[in-house]
Amino acid sequence: MLSNDIIQQYNEKLQAEHQFKLTYLTELLDRKGIDIQTIIDKIKAFQVAIPSWALGTGGTRFGRFPNGGEPRNLEEKIEDVGLIHQLNRSSNSISLHIPWDIPSDANAIKQLLKAHDLTIDSVNSNTFQDQKDQPFSYKFGSLSHTKSEVRDLAIQHNIQCVEYGKMLDSKVLTIWLADGSNFPGQSHMRSAYQRTSDSIASIYKSMPDDWTMLIEYKPYEPHFYSMVIPDWGTSYSLCQTVGKNAQVLVDLGHHLPNTNIEQIVGRLMHFGRLGGFHFNGSMYGDDDLTTGSIKPYQFFLIFNELVDGMQDPSVKNPPLAWMIDASHNTKDPIEDLLQSVNAILTTYAKALLVDREELTDAQENNDVLRAEELLRDTFMTDVRALVAEASRQAGGAIDPIATFRGAKIRSGLVDKRGFSVATGL
Ligand code: LRH
Ligand code: MN
């Protein structure tokens, strides 16, 4: 699909401009006693997982407008993530969703992953849709359902997801439940929680000891009165109940308007139960827009809490899972994902530049303005040349999107695949 020579050709065209920006930033940070290669190495080590369900154009209940050249099966989804990783060298894993991504031949899939320098980071279960010939419906819930036969079906599905994950060397099961109610009185909410807790405990017991369970919360949709796992507190309590390898998954779009997400992140790290993220951008609800596209300063404040916790030896939080969860209604899926990864890396790089000693001193002395201005100044620092340099040093593109467009990859995919529609949302 894309040779490294083509990437190098585009890099040569961009080198002079890139070097000018990098030299300026090197000087600027050097004056603050910051060695840019240290930051560049951290950026290179930061890898973001790409969701298998976001490689096609998503839709809403009002419509879906296919972009063409979408992956028609798991093999082509792996090819597309391989292309993204070839361009930015920062996307070395893919999150799967079962049953959309059941491997036809696990060994062949593992070969293909190897060929693209990829791994599977997590498997996501799906008990929010009924599959053909399914004996019982999830219409009124799955792990929280009032009928044990439906809960057992959902438990078995999650255990099967772990089996598929084992086949593909994954060690992470992600559980998001659509379970909830639409009207007051419809659900006995305390019992629904207890049934869910018992069901998740059964799944947890079936997981190998070296596996991690990520429990994702969401305040509403597809139910609009209550969700069984609506907030971080509920997910946290479930994690504490089922076991130490269960952690909270924070999907940025799963918060009510004006929620202080950075405080939730700091709190979960303090408790050592922050498992990872589904990165995306949102204005109102679970909009699944490009990461950092709507509230870049809040996104920076989230990474500020993350880096603060990651650099604090007293924080005992497991390594974090960095994953994107988005859907693309109006942009090219691959360009949108490249843009999201770039926004994540630039925001992480900015958070690495925060002078934490200076900030702590301002906070300890209640110098409100100095503390605030210290963060704003860092947020306003243009670090994009650092991310471009990290990609270049790792053999990727200085400008992945320009290279993707310049090399006319999308039209090549349309020629090869036609106007297929990918599985996913
Ligand atoms: C639910 C969610 C969950 C996925 C789905 C694709 O809104 O965020 O993470 O299973 O999107
Ligand atoms: Mn999600």
Notable features of this structure?
binds 6-deoxy-beta-L-fructofuranose, binds manganese (II) ion, 425 residues, alpha/beta, two-stranded antiparallel sheet, 48% helix
Description of the structure:
It is a single chain. 48% of the residues lie in helices and 11% in strands. It has helices at residues 4-30, 36-45, 74-88, 106-115, 148-167, 189-206, 232-242, 261-271, 296-310, 333-353, 356-364, 368-379, 384-393, 400-406, 409-417, and strands spanning 49-51, 59-60, 63-64, 93-97, 119-124, 172-176, 180-181, 212-216, 226-227, 246-251, 274-279, 321-324. The strands form three sheets. The protein has an eight-stranded parallel beta sheet. Helix 5 links the parallel strand 5 and strand 6 (172-176). Helix 11 runs antiparallel to helix 12. The radius of gyration is 22 Å and the shape is globular. The structure holds 6-deoxy-beta-L-fructofuranose and manganese (II) ion. Residues 176, 216, 251, 278, 325 line the site of manganese (II) ion.
What's the helix and strand layout?
Layout: H1 4-30, H2 36-45, E1 49-51, E2 59-60, E3 63-64, H3 74-88, E4 93-97, H4 106-115, E5 119-124, H5 148-167, E6 172-176, E7 180-181, H6 189-206, E8 212-216, E9 226-227, H7 232-242, E10 246-251, H8 261-271, E11 274-279, H9 296-310, E12 321-324, H10 333-353, H11 356-364, H12 368-379, H13 384-393, H14 400-406, H15 409-417
Parallel strand pairs: 1-4, 4-5, 5-6, 6-8, 8-10, 10-11, 11-12
Antiparallel strand pairs: 2-3, 7-9
Helix pairs in contact: 1-13, 2-10, 2-13, 3-10, 5-6, 8-9, 9-10, 11-12
This protein binds 6-deoxy-beta-L-fructofuranose and manganese (II) ion.
6-deoxy-beta-L-fructofuranose binds at residues 53, 124, 176, 216, 218, 251, 278, 286, 325, 425.
